[in-house]
Every structure is written in C-alpha cells, then in structure tokens.
Amino acid sequence: MADKKTLRLKYKKLREELSEESIEAMSLQIANQALKLPIWDKTYYHIFLPILAKKEVNTEYLLHILQGKDKSIVVSKADFNTGEMKNFLLQENTVLKTSEYGIPEPVSGIEISPEMIEVVFVPLLAYDKRGHRIGYGKGFYDRFLKRCNSEAIFVGLSFFDPEPEIFFEALDVPLNFCVIPKEIFDFQNCR
C-alpha cells in the first residue's frame, strides 16, 4: 500500500502529462457519465471550480447540466487561516475571483449551510476501490464533508482508475461514488 505522499506525487505527475485537449474531452465524458448517477432528484449540489494550473477535472460541463436541471448550485471559498470552507449559492450575478492559490471563488453571496447540501462533487488526486480519497493534504474537504448532512452523497471526479488500497485515517471521509471518463465506481457496499 503506497503512502499518501507517494500517491500525491504520482497523480500530480500523471495530470501534468495530460494535454488541454484530453482534459477537456475527459471532463466532458465524466459529466456525461455523471448523468447515470442516482442523484438527480436532489436540490442542493456543491461543485468545485477547477484549479486550472493543477489540471483538475473541468467541472464546467457538470455545471451546465446542473443549471439545465434547474438545481441550486453551491461553491466554496476557502479560509486558509481557519482551514474551513464557506459555501455560497452560485447565482447569475455571483462575482468569482481567482484566489492566490489559483482557486476560482465567490467574492460574496448567500451563504448556504453544509447541512443543506445534498450532493458534493469532490476534487481528489487519488482514490481506492473502497472510496477512500487523497486530496492535496490540507483537509479542507474532509472537514467540510463531516459538516454535511448525514444523507449527503459524495461523488469524486477523476481522470484515473482507483488504486487497490489507500491508507485511511479516522479523519478521512470516504466517497459514495467516483466518476471517471469511462465508468462509475459505486463504493456504497464496500465498507
């Protein structure tokens, strides 16, 4: 079982090798796969806005699907002093500004409590066959996911297949699903 540091380096390198064209094509495939998830009867969906420099999944395609289905879309603003994320309703007049960390974030808006959020699309670097994920190591998403409704559904988005097993810590919050370009992994019966 590889340690988190090794896996972070591995997946950062794999992402760096992806072309812009392949990122766009795979991001569109991921959005189309996501349409098969059993999540579309919900109201509040949290989505991450990609850090382009880190070659994350482009969630713009998923954003269009959510808008087309008239869902309430929630985006975050990270506070690096507290390690917490505040969540805001994404509206037509929401002003987004790229933070010093390269994260597109709302400047202000209507704050939404994590307990109201029903589905969270989760960024990640790596994940395993049981739904354990590795992010960038700051713990923002683990803290945020713990504050969500106990019925909330957590959906990872990745360009890559799962690792066999990742070291899992008590603070880590597992995924319910992970969507990759060619398939969906369902982890609900893996624990």
From TrEMBL:
One matching Pfam family: 5-FTHF_cyc-lig
Catalytic activity: (6S)-5-formyl-5,6,7,8-tetrahydrofolate + ATP = (6R)-5,10-methenyltetrahydrofolate + ADP + phosphate
Assigned keywords, A-Z: ATP-binding, Coiled coil, Magnesium, Metal-binding, Nucleotide-binding
Cofactor field: Mg(2+)
EC annotation from Swiss-Prot or TrEMBL: 6.3.3.2
Residues forming coiled coils: 4-31
The family this protein is said to belong to: Belongs to the 5-formyltetrahydrofolate cyclo-ligase family.
Record-given protein name: 5-formyltetrahydrofolate cyclo-ligase
Organism listed in the record: Aequorivita vladivostokensis
